[in-house]
Design a protein that fits this description.
This protein is mostly helical. The protein is built from four helices and no strands. Helix 2 runs antiparallel to helix 3. The relative contact order is 0.17.
Length: about 140
């Protein structure tokens, strides 16, 4: 195969990370802890991660691609933890009223955690790289 190896997980992850990063920078993420400098930092780091994914794929730079996957995993894990913490704060762990407000948002802890796990798994898969017969 002479062309670039298709990497659909990295493509989807780069788009999702770019979208959530832009949302963070314009202040549209749910949650009180993601206001001000925190969401700006999350947005800048997320855009850098998405950029690393795009540059790594287009430039056939395996380590840049892996770095983007790892940082994206961290962005989504942080988002999941913040949403989970804010959603469970001051509510009983059991009972009918245990439906955190964050779960009704666009980015729920379960979705963000799943995307973080997907990014981490893609990072592990990409770890084999060109040294093991998998061209970038």
């Amino acid at each position: 195969m002479n062309g670039r190896r298709p990497q659909p997980l990295a493509l989807v992850l780069s788009l999702l990370t770019a979208l959530i990063s832009i949302g963070a920078m314009i202040g549209s993420l749910p949650g009180e802890q993601l206001d001000g400098a925190a969401d700006d930092a999350l947005g800048l780091i997320g855009l850098c991660a998405a950029g690393c994914l795009w540059v790594g794929w287009w430039g056939r730079q395996h380590e840049t691609m892996r770095f983007g996957l790892l940082v994206s995993s961290g962005i989504w894990a942080a988002l999941a933890l913040v949403q989970l913490e804010e959603g469970l704060g001051a509510r009983p762990l059991l009972g009918v009223h245990n439906v955190p407000a964050a779960y009704g948002s666009l980015i729920s802890p379960a979705v963000a955690g799943g995307i973080a796990a997907m990014a981490w798994a893609a990072w592990l898969i990409e770890g084999r790289g060109p040294d093991y017969g998998h061209p970038v």
